[in-house]
Design a protein that fits this description.
This protein is α/β, with parallel strands linked by helices. The chain has two domains: 280 residues, Hexokinase, domain 1; 160 residues, ATPase, nucleotide binding domain (Nucleotidyltransferase, domain 5). 38% of the residues lie in helices and 18% in strands. The chain starts with 10 loop residues before the first helix and ends in an 18-residue tail after the last helix.
Length: 467
């Protein structure tokens, strides 16, 4: 069971394991702190200094099953980007997709070059599928921090994930993409811009119309949820008790103001000092797949330097930053061999030659680290469920940590049941949600556009109106 400790461990080991402990009482405290931070982000006067930005996305409706038609989706958020053609009919979808690699010089070159590259491959895709003469509504999954002024407006706050294309930060990416498409002679009707978390929620809602939360639990961590517009002071659309909008929480930044300092360890502070976004994303850095392996590497080095394990000898192979991958925690937890031979093999790849006792220490330390991450996520989702305050809450989730680390996932689900027993919190794995979600959001936007905000007729775009 998570949290178990071996009484035979040296005191240095038990103290270290205890430093990662998140008790049930602490989980409830974390939930209260998160509620306070979310409320700050929702208030116009407090938002500029709030760490959790609670960004209104202007996605004001979930799919209801009546969406039909052809839609394009672009998915940009890493070194690859995807173009998808999605046919939606009667609650079902059929997808054609191509994946393209973005060269590093394009990721970090002029902004026009990046968008020209995207538009060029969009033109090739539509030409290959014989849809280049059609003006198909397009949903753009753009997974970078943005401020929205409308559903088809997204101003880039800052590049992340290795991108540094010049001249884009502080600008609306939609006109930039439209201009590139015009240069490449491809017709587009960009009707929605969202990030991967919101796309995952929309993809989940396409299958389960009661899906009101989105969660990314992979290399990074973020959540979105459906909020009443009356509580969202920065939202500039229609407000009222019957009006809702999806909020992109950006809750990976929870704790950036110091409110989680009692949870963070020296290893977390060390990692933060060595990341490009120093001083930011403290919550995410204790949870996400990008960081768990590095936390374990640092903890092992700490015990070696204390001469508690491996005779105090630190091999060169273990000194490589970010060299100990989070997947190794999965393998260690899944090791059911009597002598933990699979764990031994992992450690030997770092020139460590463990005794039986040292294998148990590493296993317990690994478990303490991922358990903390799982319990922190459980606290976050439980608070969002409590905020939504409906008997049943469906969470659409995607990401490698959720998909491949089943012990992490099962502990999270178990904790949520105990933290908020009055709510039935269900999880729906929206695999590839960041792709299909863009098309689904475009489909919802088109459905909404058939009538104006006040029920007035709205004339859909004709081909000649496209960029």
């Amino acid at each position: 069971m998570p949290g178990e400790q071996n009484a035979d461990f040296p005191s240095e080991v038990t103290d270290l394991i205890k430093s990662f402990e998140v008790t049930r009482d602490l989980q409830y405290q974390i939930m209260e702190r998160l509620e306070d931070e979310m409320n700050k982000g929702l208030k116009a006067a407090l938002n500029p200094t709030a760490k959790i930005k609670m960004l209104p996305t202007y996605v004001t409706s979930l799919p209801d099953g009546t969406e039909n038609g052809d839609f394009l989706a672009l998915d940009l958020g890493g070194s690859n980007f995807r173009v998808m053609w999605v046919k939606i009919k009667n609650g079902k979808s059929k997808t054609c997709m191509d994946v393209y690699t973005i060269p590093s010089e394009v990721m970090r070159g002029p902004g026009d070059q990046l968008f020209d590259y995207i538009a060029e491959h969009l033109a090739k895709f539509t030409s290959y599928h014989n849809i280049c003469e059609m003006c198909i509504p397009l949903g753009f999954t753009f997974s970078f921090p943005c401020f929205h002024k409308g559903l088809a407006s997204a101003t880039l706050v800052t590049w992340t994930k290795g991108y540094d294309a010049a001249g884009v930060e502080g600008k609306d990416v939609v006109p930039l993409l439209e201009a590139a498409c015009k240069r490449k002679n491809v017709q587009v009707d960009i009707v929605a811009v969202i990030n991967d978390t919101v796309a995952t929620q929309m993809a989940g809602a396409f299958k389960d119309h009661n899906c009101v939360v989105g969660l990314i639990l992979g290399t990074g961590c973020n959540a979105s949820y459906l909020e009443c517009t009356e509580k969202v002071e920065m939202f500039e659309g229609a407000k009222g008790p019957e009006n809702f909008v999806i909020i992109d929480c950006e809750f990976g930044a929870f704790g950036d103001n110091g409110c989680l300092d009692d949870v963070r360890t020296d290893f977390d502070r060390d990692i933060d000092r060595r990341t490009f976004n120093r001083g930011k994303q403290f919550y995410e850095k204790m949870i996400a797949g990008m960081y768990l392996g590095e936390i374990l590497r640092l903890a092992i080095i700490h015990l070696i330097n204390q001469k508690v394990i491996f005779g105090g000898v630190l091999p060169e192979a273990l000194q490589k930053e970010w060299g100990f991958k989070t997947k190794n925690l999965t393998y260690i937890e899944n090791d059911t061999t009597q002598d933990l031979s699979e764990t031994r093999e992992i450690l030997e790849s770092f020139d460590l030659h463990p005794s039986a006792a040292e294998l148990q220490i590493i296993r317990a330390l690994s478990r303490a680290i991922w358990t903390r991450g799982s319990r922190l996520v459980a606290s976050g989702i439980s608070q969002i469920a409590r905020r939504i305050n409906t008997p049943s809450v469906t969470v659409a989730v995607d990401g490698s940590l959720y998909q491949h680390f089943h012990q992490f996932r099962e502990l999270m689900l178990s904790d949520i049941k105990e933290l908020v027993p009055k709510y039935e919190v269900k999880f729906h794995h929206a695999e590839d949600g960041s792709g299909i979600g863009g098309a689904v959001t475009a489909a919802v936007a088109v459905r909404q556009s058939r009538t104006g905000q006040n029920g007035q007729p709205h004339v859909p775009l004709q081909n000649g109106d496209c960029v």
